[in-house]
Amino acid sequence: MMLAPSPLPDELASSYLGRVFTLNGLTVSGENKSRFTCGHSNETGRQGEISYLRGLAESARMPIEAFRFQHTLLPFFAAVQVDGPPDLLAPDAQTSKMHLAAHRGVRNGAIFCPNCVDEDLGFWGVSYLRRMHHIPGVVLCAKHGAALHTVTAAGSQYSQPHATKSRAVPLAQGVVDHAKSNEVISRYTDICLAMLEQRLTFSTEKVAATLAKQTHQFLKRPRGRVPGDHLSSMVSSKAGGPWLSMFFPAFANRLEGAYKAIVDRTLTNRRFSQPTAAYALVMAVLYESCDDALNDIRRSEVHDRQQAQRHEAPSARLESAVKSFLAGESIAQAALSHQVTRPALEALLRKAVVPHAHRTLLP
Ligand SMILES: [Zn+2]
Fold it and tell me: Ligand 1 center to residue 129 CA distance, Å?
């Protein structure tokens, strides 16, 4: 029986595992990790990864969906989905595809903000790695505005950052200066951080259609085809420099790199999702703010839902509105998107004993 602390806010799964092992006097070795994975020590590859996540969730005494949502980069990597679950916290979101997506992003190495480390030591008595510092392309701490530091040594993703601080190096000054002075990069960061908190995923088809419409408006060309490489050219011209070269190297050498094609496909490919970072880059170029971008896509999802529900009975619409509320929408949003009146929805929610009812009774 192992002692297990509660995970801390935004704590990365690997950092939590490191703390559990330290508390129990264990080192993070392959053998100890296998013991930890709920006794499924003979499982390797995909199944091993899933067991590992299950072991962490059990330690944290959290449902696996909640652990994945709060302590891995899953909400970011799964933000745009062809056929994934629309709600990452729904009980039927337990697919191995989702478990594996939760593992992406962090393998070896650690990234942290020195100011957060000092604050955490003072407040919690421990320091830990945060998810928001590990999103690809994020170079500044959202809380302190400080440049992030990295440690590349193998296994540092399990360590407490105050212990590895002396070996850490700040991100290259040129990259940090570029990110600080460029509006597109700052919007990219805002969009990625917002996606990390979002439990409702976007459909690939809807995102592509919305971005295509926005591209035409942006170019003031309501009709006609947009040239195939137009988006990647816009990204190059508006965000080109040390930051883009470091995180998206295909843009650096002006070759027809694979990543450029991925960026251009965000607009045209409705059957396969592109990496989330590519969607975030395109949104950062096409919209003036993170809210503008995400609200535009949400609006188009809501519009489609309304079309589909036009012929539904009022009681069915009310039921759907309650589900949307429980999935994280505000009362106002849920009432609007399911075409029910707000007082009717509010009255039903007040009567029901639901765990989240106290949360958003304000608009
Ligand atoms: Zn910080």
Answer: 11
For the chain, the straight-line distance linking the first and the last C-alpha, in angstroms and rounded, comes to: 45
**Residues belonging to the chain:** 363
Give distance in angstroms: CA of 3 to centre of ligand 1.
Answer: 29
* Ligand 1 centroid to residue 110 C-alpha, Å: 14
Contact 139, 176 (CB under 8 A): yes
Phi-psi region of 64 (alpha: psi -120 to 50; beta: other; left: phi over 0): alpha
E strands, the chain, are 80-81, 110-112, 149-151, 169-170, 202-203
What is the whole-number distance in angstroms between the Cα of residue 264 and the centre of ligand 1? 34
Residues 305, 202 contacting (CB under 8 angstroms): no
62 & 122 share domain: no
CA–centroid distance, residue 79 to ligand 1 (Å): 24
Mean pLDDT value of segment 299-328? 75
Q: Which domain holds residue 343?
A: 311-351
In a domain, 238, yes or no: yes
pTM assigned to the model: 0.80
- 193 and 276, same domain (yes or no): yes
DSSP 121-134: HHHTSS---BGGGG
209 shares a domain with 166: no
Number of separate domains in the chain: 4
Buried b (16+ CB within 10 A) or exposed e, 112-138: bbbebbeebeeeeebbbbbbbbbbbbb
pLDDT digits (tens, 9 = 90+) for 154-174: 888 888 999 988 899 999 999
Residue by residue, DSSP assigns 281-318 as: HHHHHH-SSHHHHHHHHHHHHHHHHHHHHTTS-HHHHH
On whether residue 356 sits in a domain, the answer given is: no
Residue where one domain finishes, among candidates 43, 71, 103:
103
57, 117: one domain: no
> In angstroms, what is the span from residue 120 Cα to ligand 1's centroid?
10
Assess whether pLDDT exceeds 90 at residue 125: yes
